[in-house]
Amino acid sequence: EVRVVESGGVSVQAGGSLRISCTASGFTFDDASDMGWYRQSPAASCEFVSTISSDGTPTYEDSVQGRFTISKDNAKNTLYLQLDSLQTEDTAMYYCVKAVNSLWPPTVAQRGQGTQVTVSS
Questions:
Q1: Torsion sign (Cα): 85, 38, 24, 13
Q2: Pairing verdict, β 58-60 and 47-52
Q3: DSSP 8-state assignment for residue 41
Q4: How many Cα atoms are found within 13 Å in the side-chain-facing hemisphere of 81?
Q5: Residues forming a β-bridge with 21
Q6: Rounded Cα gap, residues 33 and 56, in angstroms
Q7: How high is the pLDDT of residue 45?
Q8: Residue 29: predicted pLDDT
Q9: DSSP assignment of 77-111, as one string?
Q10: Hey, is 53 helix, strand or coil?
Q11: Among 57, 88, 84, which residue's Cα sits nearest to residue 68?
Q12: How far apart are CA 97 and CA 57, in angstroms?
């Protein structure tokens, strides 16, 4: 069974940092699938934040470029998103996804339950 499980979401103050993680099972990161993160907030539609290709090439949405860093550990089958210089607008549920292609935004094959990031002013 293919599963992705997110963790690490917390409440932080604006300007702060945190790292969220996604552990995958049922497939391996070196199977040529892109992985990524998208977020959903009550006030906004779903927004893809970042993706990383099987060879480690990252892509970022403009509003997070330079503040967020996506990475992965193939040995641990874990995806990370480092969130720095957080802004209140970053408040959202963050979802880890396994993609079926390398489009932007990608087509989602599998999504987790999400981890909540709340940024207060």
A1: positive
A2: antiparallel
A3: -
A4: 32
A5: 7, 80
A6: 11
A7: 77
A8: 77
A9: TEEEEEE-S--GGG-EEEEEEEESS--SSPPEEEE
A10: coil
A11: 84
A12: 16
- Supply 71's token pair: 């990475």
In a structure prediction context, what are the per-residue pLDDT tens digits for the chain, which is 121 residues long?
A: 889 999 999 999 999 999 999 999 988 877 668 999 999 998 777 899 999 998 899 999 999 999 999 999 999 999 999 999 999 999 999 999 999 888 888 998 899 999 999 999 9
Structure tokens at 103: 């489009």
What is the model's pLDDT at position 34?
92
Only one residue has tokens 């996804």, namely 97
Rounded to whole angstroms, the Cα distance separating 7 from 42 reads 20
| Burial (0-12, 13-18, 19+ Cβ within 10 Å), 117 | buried
Whether the Cβ atoms of residue 34 and residue 70 lie closer than 8 Å to each other: no
- Residue 116: the pLDDT is 97
Q: Which of 59, 47, 36 is nearest to 90 (CA)?
A: 47
